[in-house]
Amino acid sequence: MQPRQPAWPRRGDRDPPSAGSAPPRRIATAVACLSSDDASYVTGAHLAVDGGFLA
Question: Cα–chain-centroid distance for residue 3?
């Protein structure tokens, strides 16, 4: 009998998130997108601009 594999990978098993903090232009891009008419249907959502840390 083989050991059971976890359904989801552990955090250490995945590719590491982007190194360091984001430059201000990355945050500004997200703010500009949410401020535009393209985001008119985005409501009650959290947008993580974290370079993949929470992924």
Answer: 31
**Structure token pair of residue 16:** 């590491």
Quick one: which of 39, 25, 38, 37 has its CA closest to 49? 25
Global pTM value: 0.53
What is the gyration radius of the CA atoms in the chain, in angstroms?
Answer: 17
Output the six-digit token pair for 15.
């590719």
**What is the 3-state secondary structure of the chain?**
CCCCCCCCCCHHHCCCCCCCCCCHHHHHHHHHHHHCHHHCCCCCCCCCCCCCCCC
pLDDT digits (tens, 9 = 90+) for 2-25: 666 656 556 555 555 666 677 889
